[in-house]
Structures are given as structure tokens and as C-alpha cells.
Protein 1
Amino acid sequence: MKVKFGIQIEPQFGFDYETVEKIALSAEQVGYDSIWSSDHLFLNDKSDDINCMEAWSLLSALAVATKKLNLGTLVTCNSYRYPSILAKIAATVDMISGGRVFFGFGAGWKEIEYNAYGIPFPSIKDRLEQMEEAIEIIKLLWTEPKVTYEGKHYKIKDAFSAPKPVQKPHPPIMIGGMGEKVLLKIVAKHADWCNFFPRPNIEHSLEVLKEHCVAVGRDFSDVRKSLFVVGGPVYVSESDKEINQFMGELAKKHNRTIEQIREHYSGGFPGSWAGKPEEVIERFQHFIDMGFEYFQVLFNGFDEKIVDYSKDFAEMVMKKL
């Protein structure tokens, strides 16, 4: 199994477009498969002067700037756009890019954004119900000439959506999260990919997903598995001095000791997300052995240093896996 890698961008950290474009063009050149954007409106209540580009607008610009790089959201918040409008937005970006969209999707969670922008914040039960109805509507609009749908939360009547996506029958749908009782059941029913986080209970979550697949009559292997590396920004170097400097900068940023940062990076898994190439390779190989075939990698910062970090990772880790 040949694994693939993408670079995750968090616009809420303060990126400008020129920087993201440079990261994307470099990623395309050195062999990354994709670039991903989170879907947030701002970082926190003190970030009024920090840039936070809207995810789908950003991807539409990158669709023109790049030629081969796949473009994904990790993940689109269902609550921020009515599903019929979101279907058209994603299909448009798929057309602009020539069929390079990954449709990452989630129920939404960041209550401070909902409240600030006047978006209703229902219970998690209702948000998951809304998400499932939205997936059904979006898939219908992508594949059917005209759609009428009446659910508990959403209704459309004689709706049609053109353009249709370039990818047939539709862009790959990736659902992010590890909620076992409901979310993974929705994954089993509707998703092409399931995106996990590197948490200690991840093996149990995979087993639960397998059980849901059996319950809905689907082959577990049909749901492909990706991992968003959020156990700390990824960093690789041959130099102990550079690694210690990186750890020291993180410790200062988060008001922790270097020992605490190193303990955090251990995560209870073999190897590390930050360290010498053999350590980082060991960490990724552990998850590859569990069946993961796609990784979204988060590098430190929000400036052009990410270009250098991502090139080092590509040479010392990515191309060896």
C-alpha cells in the first residue's frame, strides 16, 4: 500500500493568501498529494486582527494556482452553509480544479463561532442529524437532475444543481471525527473516507467502525482511513540541536517545559511526530500498519517556514514510506 500525504493549513492562525499559495506550489513540486484547509471563522475572542480566510474561497484560488494538487477541507462545518448551497460551492470548485476536490465534512463544534456569527448552535444530537440529512441532499444534488427532499431539519423542492462535479459519481466524501455511537455509523452509511485523530482509543474506534459497516451491510475495507496528525506540529531534522531548539520554541509558546513538550509528543505511540527521521518514520509506520493510507500533516507556524519544514519532511520521511 502506497501511502499519500497532504499539508493541513489552519487559516485561523493568521495566514495570508500569498503564503498559502507558496506552500501549495512547493507541495505540488516535491510530491505531496494534497493541501487541506480547516473551516473556521476566527481563532478566538482576541483574534479580531488575525486573518482567517474562508475555506472554500481559499480552495477556489488554489484550484487555479495549482495543476495537480488535490484540494480538501478538514473539515467543512455543515452548519455554516445550507446543504444545497454547499453542494453547488463544492461542485464549482471541483469544476475549476478539473476534478481535484476532497469533500471533508463534519457536524461542527466551535460554539464561540456560532454565537459570534449568529448561527444557531443546536445539541450535538441535532447537529449530527443535520449533518446526515445534509450528506443525503448533497449527494442527490451532485448525481440527480432534480431533487425534492423533506427531512426533519432540511427541505428542498424541485432543486437542481449545475454544474455537477467533474468527479463521478461525486467527489470523495471524508467525514472527520471519532464519535463512536452515531458519527461512525454515519461514516459507515455515507463516507468514502473516515478521518481519525491519533488518540489512545483509535484501535477501538476502528473496531467500532467495522461493526457499523457490518450492520449496514458494507465492507469495512470500502471505507478508507486517513489520519489528521494533530499530536503536535510535525518536525524532522538530523540535528539534535535543531530538534532541541524546536522543542524549546514550542515550550515557550505554550508556557511549558521542554520535558512536558516531549512527553506530549510521545502520545503513547512508538516513535514521535517530531525528531530524527527514524523516529518520525516509526510513528507513521505504526499507523500505516493499522491500515491508514492517507495523512494530513500539520507543520508549525503560519509563514513561509512551512515550505522548508514540508520539504525536509518530504525528503527525510514521506519519500521513504
Protein 2
Amino acid sequence: MPVTPAPAAPPATAPAAAKPVIGDFGLDLSAGKHSVKPGDDFFAYANGAWYDAFTIPADHASFGPFDKLDELSKQRVHAIIERAAPAHAAAATPEQQIGDFYAAFMDEAAIEANGLAPVQADLQRIAAANTGQALAQLFGEPGFASLFDVQLPADFKNPDRYSVFISQATLGLPDRDYYLKDDPQLKELRGKYVAYIAQMLSLGGASDAQAKARDIMAFETAAAKVQWPIEKRRDVEAIYNPRSKQQLLGFAPGFPWQAFLEAQQLGARQELVLAEYSALHDLADLFSRTPVTTLQAFLTFHYLSSHAQYLPKRFDEARFAFYGQTMRAAATARALEARRRCGRWGAR
């Protein structure tokens, strides 16, 4: 008979009670600048002292409570990995897998020496995808960009089952306003995004990177024009459109849906839910009208961008410069301006 081990003995002395991380709850009145009249600038009245004194860490474009929690989580995960990496755990254990993965990720000399060799097979697949069917298959595979997302949430009208939802995908910029809004900051950001696309393509060895970057931007802008705005996407009734696969094929024939769904291992699925209904039709039509070379460039750029942290340092640095600094700084500036406007509006 198996022997049940005895329970571990309690420690000789009880550990000291952990100090609360957050501390006291409530409104921090010391954060405000009370020399300012709330009717003149409520943001400064409520937050001015904190705003004047706080310094954003040098490696961040913005920093707040959620960033602090994110940093804490990363530190804890890092500690777990650091313990696993040198442990030389038994083969096939989680500790061994974590340790090996971390060691490979941290071996910068090997990453630099390998260059693009580890991703060359995927890049060649993109270059060889010269038909709509082949491109749609890549759109459906993990690790590649797409005009469409597939999710399997609980059905909105029947929580006892899961449904296949097809929706518009996020492009290289956060939402359609970034492509379309007549705003000086966003116009400047769009120019920097095109420069980033060209930079990433050049690093990947593409010829005519500048022209391809402009084509990709024109393609994504055309997609943004037909995508639904965020306020419309919050309408649960509007984004719940159950359809059969045959109905989808008849409604949006411009896109090879079967190849896309087979890549998602959903080729046999007959019942679907279409989210942004008109956008799916228009995006499928856009796909059919776009030159193969532009779609290949779109896939190549996003592949290099999304895998930059696993590639040589020049790729990772380029991505961080745009998404980690330029993009976050622009988003922070827009949010700050919105808060300031809200403060002024509230005083009227």
C-alpha cells in the first residue's frame, strides 16, 4: 500500500504579516494643486501637484498604476524563469522547457548569428503565396496578419454553446481613427508608421521598401475606411449575425473563406456568426481588388514586426522605437488632451 507522507512541520516562528502593497484606500488630496480654481482647470486642481512632481521612467512613454502592476507581474515571472533556467531539470518537465526556452531567448550572440534563418521558411511561404487561396490560407494561420479575426466565445444568445465569430481584425495602428481622423498628431503618426514599415521591410531585405510601405499604408487605410467604428462595435445586437457558411460565401465572395477556415481547423464548420456585417463584405471585396504583391508585402511586414523580439536586435529596436515609444507617446498625449478638455467642459 502506498504510504501517505506526514504533513510538514509548521515553522518555528510565524512569519511577519505582509505589509499591504496598496496601503490606505481613499482620495489622495495631496495630488491636487489647490492654488488653481477647479472652475478654471479641474485637471490641475485634482492632479496638478502629482503631475508636476511625477517623472515617467526613462524606458516608458507613459506610466500609471496599471503599468506599475504590469512591471510587478513581469518581475515575478522573471524570478520564476531565473530559478528554472539554471536548474537542469529532468527532461520534458515544465522547468526544463522554461529553462531551455529562456536560454535560447537570451542567447543574443546566437540570435544575431542566425539572422533571418529561423523565419526564412515562413517568409518564403509568403513569397510563394501568389494566389488568393494561398494568401487566404496564410491569413488564417497563427503568426500571420489578416483582415479577419476568428474567436470562439460563448454564443450571445445561447450561453450553453460556443460559436465561431468572424470579425474585422486590428491593423497596424490601434483603430480606424488613427488612419482617417483629420488630426495633426495622427497625421504625423501616420507618416512615422509608413517610415517604420519601410524600415522593417528594409531590414528584412525587401527591395523597393519605400514603395511597398506606401502600398501597405494605402491598403490598411482602405480597410480602415470600411471597418466599423468602436462605438458601433459595442452594439451587441449589431455584431450578432448568425449565418451559414453558404450564406457567407454568397454574401462576401471576394475572399476565399474555405481556405481561411481550413487553416483555422474550422473547414467543416457550417454555422457561423458574422460580427461587423457590412465590413466583412467590404473587406472581402478589398482583398479581391488588391494586387497580390501588396498582400504579400502586408504579410511580410507584419510578420517581421510581430516576431521582432525573436529576431536580431535591429528588428527589436525598430519595433520598440515605434510601438514602445512613438506610439505610446502619441496615445498618452491624446489621452491627456482629452482629460484636459473634459476638465474644462466640466467647469462650464
Protein 3
Amino acid sequence: MSSKKVVIGAVVGVAAGAVLGLLFAPAKGAMTRQRMARKVANSAEDVQENLSEYIDATVEKYDSVKQGAVDLVDKAKKKAASATERLRAR
């Protein structure tokens, strides 16, 4: 399962749980709005944290793939130069 799907699933789950909890909780309107505001703020922080982690992981993967590509190109250049030298030596 991709990280993106996990983050989206977590966000949806938190939001659904918060809404259901508030709907079934016996409290006054003002208290319910305060609770809802706190839960939304907490959920927003969680989303921001998860998104930051996802971005960091993506950047690390990109850097790794980029370095692998650079290494592969360097190896190909060396093999091409070696093959060219062998052909010239004939």
C-alpha cells in the first residue's frame, strides 16, 4: 500500500471519528463547537506531520534514484571509453 493511501486513510478515519464522536456526545452547542475546533486543529497538525514525513521520504527516494542514475551513467561512459580504446588499439 502506498504512503499516500495510508495518509489519506488516516485523515479520513480521524475526521470520521471526530464527527461521529461529536454527533453522539451529549454536550451543549458551544462545547461541541469547541471540541470540534480542537479536533480539527489536532487533525490538521497530524495531516501536516504526515505530509512532512511523506515529503521527506519522497525526497530521500528521489535522491537515491538520482544518485543511482548518475552512477549508472558514469559506469556506461567508462565502458564506452574502454571499448573505444580497444577498437582504436586494433
Protein 4
Amino acid sequence: MYSGSCLCGTVKFTITTKISDIVFCHCSLCRKAQGSAFATNGNVEAKYFKFISGEDNLTIYPYSEHQTKLFCKTCGSPILSKNTQTPDTVRVRVGTIESDINETPEAHIFVASKANWDEITDSLPQYTAYKE
């Protein structure tokens, strides 16, 4: 089981399954949302993701026609995104998880739009768009 929270601790959640498809996303939108060179995201089956507290303190950003991003209203921490095309899965910002994580990142995605000041130095596969 994994536990996580936002920066201020208002939003708390648990995950009771493995985290799959962990990737470092270098797209310009993730960089802006994260305020960093990339965002680290992983998929979780929605039925195994539960808010413990603070769900009413989330704000929703309609990112696209099918995708929304959820942030803490108080501290701005990005928590997860949901996609209506994959309603049984949520995409969690792995940095919000406080527990040690057993799974490891699998790839870098959208490296064609990575920040020019960022250098990828590990041996993970790199994809110009989504992981193929």
C-alpha cells in the first residue's frame, strides 16, 4: 500500500495496488504544470486509489476535451489526472507519494520537446512522443 499527500497535507490518499507505466514526461505542458524539467507520472487502477481526506479541497483544470487535472486548492500540488477515455485508470504524480515505491520508471517520453537546459543521463528508453 502507498500513501501520499499534497505539499500542505490537506489532500491525502492511498493506493492499494501497483503503479504501472511510470514515465518521465518532458512535454512543455507537464513542465509548466510541474514547474520542473519533467513530470513523473504513473497509472493506477481507479478502484485502488482512494482519497483519505481533502478531496473537497481539490480544484479541477480541464486540460483537454477528455482529460482533467486535479490540484490542491491550498498549496497547488498536482495530484492526478483523469481521462474519460480510460475511466478505470488515474494518472498519479509520483512525487506526491510518501511511501517507498517498488516500481521503477520505464522511459522518458516527449523528449523531442524537453527543456534545452535538461540533460537525460540515464539509460532508460527515450521516445519522441508517447511510449511506443
